[in-house]
Design a protein that fits this description.
The protein is an alpha/beta fold. About 35% of the residues lie in helices and about 15% in strands. It folds into four domains: about 30 residues; about 350 residues, 3-Layer(aba) Sandwich (Alkaline Phosphatase, subunit A); about 70 residues, Arylsulfatase, C-terminal domain; about 70 residues, Orthogonal Bundle (Recoverin, domain 1). A hairpin with a 2-residue loop joins β12 and β13.
Length: about 550
């Protein structure tokens, strides 16, 4: 009888424990959720907690108070699409021939790029989805372009749900301000199961489209500051909406929240009067004259391989794991480290055949001293103007960072621990370090593909055809090719200082023997200068 009673108690205990464990596994908190908030062109200095003199970012500051602010975080390219590629895949974007932002198929071809990120690429979303996470992507996509047909949708990259802007041709486009609301709704609908969300907000990219409420808040400032401050406020409010949704659903304490940005701040262009704005700018918002983002004293801005272009905010809140109110000024963290680190944090084992360019730095998330063992590499093929946009390649090893041209004829060496502004070139003082790092980055560059994967190229857009069965007209194709060649020759002739871009003065001088008035040339220059930064790249000049 005693044995039977003992067995009954043991069985009862087992059933209760088994039932409890099952309930725990179904409760929010069984595995940590992940919300990655990725801003756009948000400079390192555009935060109150980073010392900005007037911008207010109370919600992001709250994240910093409740988590850790990593001060040495770098993205792997100074513009959007490749930066996001590195984050998603844990691979250098150059491994996919993604060197600049995805533009029209013709422009991508000119840049020797594909038209979209390879859907076969490993992604953080794939790995978490396969581990049972509900996955979603809300906000900016830009892993293809709105002029591109045939691009894979977010589902192909591992997302259960997606509402995006800057997607492929024919995709439904999301409201620029809708990212936070969509994220909050997903959290409320899925708070009882583990989830992963990319919340990629629009701020502070152009066109600036601040809300009326935020504009009213900053009406005491001049117009330029008012617009930019309102944009930052809208972005910070989006972060607040997401944090509130986590709190309201009871999952805040079991959610890893990351705030970061895809590259440094946009350059400030000359102001355009309303009749000089293109039709889209008149309808949708303010131009780059209002882009007065702060690089926080770093050298360079967007499109530069100096720190102002690639060092961005990186704030992590993980209650019970990441120290609250801490500033990590020693860990060298990069975008390719995010995938292996977050997978380790949520207990997802990466496949044996996955070769990551980054490292698992989870000890850093837990506040432990951490040193990376691998160097960091950058490749840039866009604008090369002075003073800070000329480097094509860069490498960081420890506190040393070397930037150089493709041919290594121009090199700078900086010690970032004592010179975060990269103001002192130490190349002459340390030829041994220069030699080692130069070989390191050139050897890495030699491993990169020479051409994009043909399966990631649109077969219709580049010939302006609706189907492959209708071959291009040879005469028309040849005429277009000759036009592009002639324009390229004209660009080379006008680019008198051979820096890869045309200033307005160079353009006017180059057009002095052409028919047209100075006013007409000025309007034409501004029309070709699509990003409004006051200079014209070869692509902007030749792609008509």
């Amino acid at each position: 009888m005693k044995i039977i009673l003992f067995l009954a108690i043991l069985l009862s205990t087992f059933l209760v424990r088994h039932s409890t464990l099952g309930a725990e596994e179904g409760k929010p908190g069984s595995r940590p959720n992940v919300v990655f908030i990725f801003a756009d062109d948000w400079g390192w200095g555009d935060l109150t907690c980073h010392g900005h003199p007037w911008l207010k970012t109370p919600n992001i500051d709250r994240l910093a108070r409740e988590g850790t602010d990593f001060q040495h975080f770098n993205v792997l390219n100074p513009v959007c699409s490749p930066s996001r590629t590195g984050l998603m895949t844990g691979h250098y974007p150059a491994r996919y021939s993604i060197h600049q932002h995805f533009a029209s198929p013709n422009q991508n071809q000119e840049r020797n790029m594909p038209d979209w990120l390879d859907a076969k690429a490993p992604t953080l979303a794939h790995f978490l989805h396969q581990a049972g996470y509900r996955t979603a992507h809300f906000g900016k996509w830009h892993l293809t372009n709105a002029q591109t047909n045939g691009a894979p949708t977010p589902a192909a990259y591992g997302y259960d749900e997606a509402v995006v802007f800057n997607g492929g041709a024919g995709w439904p486009s999301a409201d620029l301000h809708g990212t936070a609301a969509n994220t909050a709704a997903f959290i409320k609908a899925n708070h009882d199961k583990p989830f992963f969300i990319n919340a990629w907000i629009h701020e502070s990219h152009t066109p600036h489209v601040p809300t009326a409420e935020s504009m009213e808040k900053w009406k005491h400032l001049d117009e330029q500051k008012q617009v930019y401050s309102a944009v930052i406020t809208d972005g910070d409010n989006a972060v607040g909406t997401i944090l509130d949704a986590l709190k309201d659903t009871g999952v805040a304490d079991n959610t890893i929240v990351v705030f970061s940005s895809d590259n440094g701040p946009e350059s400030t262009a000359i102001k355009k009067s309303p009749n000089q704005l293109d039709s889209d700018a008149r309808v949708t918002g303010y131009d780059t004259y209002y882009s007065i983002g702060s690089n926080g004293g770093l050298r360079g801005r967007k499109r530069s391989l100096f720190e102002g272009g690639v060092r961005v905010p990186f704030i992590v809140r993980w209650p019970g794991h990441t120290p609250a109110g801490a500033k990590d000024d020693t860990t060298v963290f990069t975008a390719v480290d995010v995938l292996p680190t977050l997978c380790a944090a949520v207990g997802v084992t990466l496949p044996a055949d996955y070769k990551c360019d980054g490292e698992n730095l989870i000890p850093a998330l837990e506040g432990k001293p951490t040193s990376r063992t691998r160097p960091i590499f950058w490749k840039w093929t866009g604008t090369r103007q002075e003073p800070d946009w000329w480097p094509r390649l860069a490498v960081r090893e420890g506190d040393w960072k070397l930037v150089m041209t493709d041919d290594a004829n121009r090199i700078e060496l900086h010690q970032l621990k004592d010179d975060r502004a990269e103001s002192v070139d130490l190349a002459k003082e340390h030829p041994d370090i220069v030699a080692r790092l130069t070989k390191l980055v050139l050897d890495w560059n030699a491993t990169l593909p020479k051409e994009p994967d043909p399966t990631c190229i649109s077969t219709t857009d580049r010939t302006n055809l609706s189907s492959k069965s209708n071959p291009p007209n040879a005469a028309a194709t040849n005429a277009l090719a000759m036009s592009a060649v002639n324009l390229a020759k004209a660009f080379h002739r006008m680019d008198t200082n051979k820096d890869g871009v045309l200033t307005f003065e160079e353009y006017i001088k180059g057009m002095k023997n052409s028919p047209g008035t100075a006013s007409e040339f000025e309007q034409r220059f501004k029309r070709f200068d699509k990003d409004g930064n006051g200079t014209m790249t070869r692509e902007e000049f030749t792609i008509r």
